[in-house]
Amino acid sequence: MSAPEFRIFNQVFSLGVALLYASLLTAFFRPFVPQEKKRWKLLLVFSIYLLFAVVCNHPALPQGSFGLIVTALLLVVSNWIGLEKSQGFLLSLLYFNARISSGLVVESLYFLLERWLPLPTEPPEIVFFRAAVMVMLFLLSHATLFAVMLYALQRQLQKQRIPLHRRELCYLSLVPTAGILFGQVISRLLIDFQDGVLFQLYARHPAFLAVVPALALLFYGGAYLTIAFQQGMAALQAERAVLFAERQQTQTIRARIHEAEQFYTRIHQLKHEMRGHLTNIKGLTQRGEYASLEDYIARMDESIPGFALALQTGNPVTDVIVNDIRRRSLDVGIHFQVDFHFPAPGAYDAFDVGIILQNLLQNAVEACENVNEGARFIALTGKRTGRFFLIEVKNAFTGTVVFGPDGLPVTTKLEDAPMHGIGLANVRREAEKYRGELELKVNQQEFSATVLLQERSSL
User: Fold this and answer.
1) Whole-prediction pTM value?
2) What is the tens place of the pLDDT at every residue in 382-440?
3) What interhelical angle do 350-368 and 423-433 show, nearest 10?
4) Residue 32, phi then psi, degrees to nearest 5
5) What's phi and psi for 241, nearest 5 deg?
6) Composition of the chain by helix, strand, coil, percent to 5
7) Residue 408 region by backbone torsions, left for phi larger than 0, else alpha for psi between -120 and 50, else beta
8) CB within 8 Å of 191: residues ≥ 6 apart
9) H/E segment holding residue 378
10) Residue 393 host element (H or E)
């Protein structure tokens, strides 16, 4: 390889390096970018890295500034690509930490390989060819290890979404930031010129051949384990929130059951008292004391308020829940339509069905409160089909629904976020107890949740 050919090779090689690392960055960001216009968003990430690497000639910049500038640019466009700034910042840190860690590992192997292969002094064509082969080997080795590291981080991050508040972001950023700084310091020490003499760190201190890559891998492993640990903590917090919410719902349902028991006890008492009332009314009628009869009936009306449930579902628990939601709906101008019939007792636990109704109807009311008056509606359907019981709740909503990896809508409530967004998860869990399923659909401005339960006798 001649000198002109080697110069051309260097130019093509530099462009290839930029394309390769831009592609790896784009692939690393890909699972976390929203689906809407995903191709254009990923192209923006790719272009930011590539254009800055090629146009700005980053080797001429102060060492370490390239990663800072690319990270800053990604933060600027984070809203356009559909990422939170905290998420974009963390992904950038992890990318450059993995790149530096893998580079230090390969650099030590590259040093050993150079020592094993004799360096020819002539002819120049052989020298240039050897240099081209060595840098290609370094690039391929580094790209392979780098890609594996990014893939491992990507898979771990996809297992569970971590809420990146300020404290969590600082905790997760600590190790990769330290790894990047360590890599920058070592990079400055690897090769140094003093009075025209070349000094190599690994040649002067052979022990560093093992120490540096080991520390680099520890920084990478520390970042990986920190993510896994934080995901475990987030899972524990979410589980604690679910248990707390379930306990609250259980207490609510038990209160509804108590109300239903009291209601029907009073109904039975009223039936018993009605015999005496009817006897008194008959006596007043026979004696012709119509004025006294009118006063007596008026006093009866005053003594039996609240003994009517507008909706009868066939079960005391669901009666109280549905009528309670109906009253709430009427108070906020929601048109509430019900065609719900509880199946024969025994096949389905009223307590479980009550939890399903409570969550679905609660979510429907909250969704309708954001809809303009006049367009608010909730339609509840519950019917038995063979050995299955179908529950469906449709309601008006406004805005868009974003579904998470678990197939459930992602909550948009920022305050006390762990306590929200678990209602439908509870519904799904109750459905699975009956080998059933929860299906969610969005049709224009109508949201529907359908629960299919299989009766116990067929389990």
Assistant:
1) 0.62
2) 998 888 899 999 999 888 777 776 777 776 554 444 334 457 888 888 888 888 999 99
3) 150
4) -100, -5
5) -65, -40
6) 65, 10, 20
7) beta
8) 198, 199, 200, 201
9) strand 377-385
10) strand 388-396
